[in-house]
What does this fold into?
Amino acid sequence: MDFTALVDRHYQGLYQFAYSLAHTEADASDLTQETFLRWAQKGGQLRDSAKVKSWLFTTLYRLFLNRRRHVTRFPHDELSGVALKLPSISSEAVRSLEASEVMSALREIDETFRAPLVLFYLEDHSYQEIATILEIPEGTVMSRLWRGKALLREKLKDRPVARPVSNIIPMQSPSRKEARS
Amino acid sequence: MNPEEARLILQCRRPQGQDDALPAMAEAMEVLATLPEAQAALESDAALDALIGAKLRRFAVPAQLRHSILTGARITPRLAWWRRRHFILSAAAVLAVGWSITLFKSQLYSPDSGTGQAVPSGSLAEFREAATIKISGGEIHLNKVSSRLGELQAYLASRPQGRPVSLPEGLTTLPTHGCEVFEWQGHEVTLICFETAEAGIAHLFTIDADALPADLSTPLPASVHGWETLTWKQDGKVMLLTAQTSPATLRRLALPG
It folds into this structure.
């Protein structure tokens, strides 16, 4: 595939994944650029073109882990430990949020759950692809996705929601002032 | 498979149905098909997931990121020439022979002559070599990113000892990626990266003419490691334009008309 076409197809998703993991826009940009640089240097060795996307995301995730001094190996969760009820949140509440607010809520979640969740939401990766990228068992992906979704919903529920103008009550109406005096 | 397991699996299902052929997904869907309430809950979850996913995919990406990626990495699909095995072996052989000759000369003449004659620095050939190595190796670190040449020129002029640089007319109308200032053999070099329709990214290196004594009464074309280069003198500067294109295209870009 032509390099420009490859960049155009994947750089946004890679950046969004990087931004959800890294602390700053600059770090996320660096990770994204470095991933494509690795591709330029080594991508030719990949024979199966169907695996390009997974290769890019795996590379970015490894670069991220390598940059952290202390890589924590998280325990692999068991399926049985998952509480099978997601907190409820209205679609209206989500609809009223800006993309940056959703990203911000996502970044508050522990990285253990954040990485699979972002891959699921941003790039429509299958759970098997997510397992390959993060190098964890498929069952662990399932449980982390479930728990990650639950945590994200909790975070989104806590966000202030923009309300219709008619619901806004003035802080001090003239009548209240009169009543006090 | 019980309904809880089925729901856990189905929450990983992608909305476009790409995973429906997977045996585990198919089985899970069969299990939930008999439980309308659970199915309704799953559909509600999927709708919410789609909404969250759509929000996240709209998260803004820095405007200059694409340019930076293409500038820094597109030019390195080929393994840089100095990292190829045959070059490393050849270089090792040349070094060994060179070392032997130096040693032989030092023993033949006098102990003081062992250092040999220094290689003349600042030659045009070396400059070309350094320029193409820099871009082949993806070693470009833009100090200023902008698609407007005017902004880059303003940045370059605002630096300590910076001066406005007049550019060939053919380049002044092109969009840019960014610019970098770096040192080569103790001399300041500026690099401006242009986006061209005919030649992809073109790189213009500029150095003071005093730092690079060369006969450039006429523009000199040369091919270096797969890069076409054209070097000429203008307003007290030596300019080297390079791209992966034909010599004619490069000349048209640099010196139209």
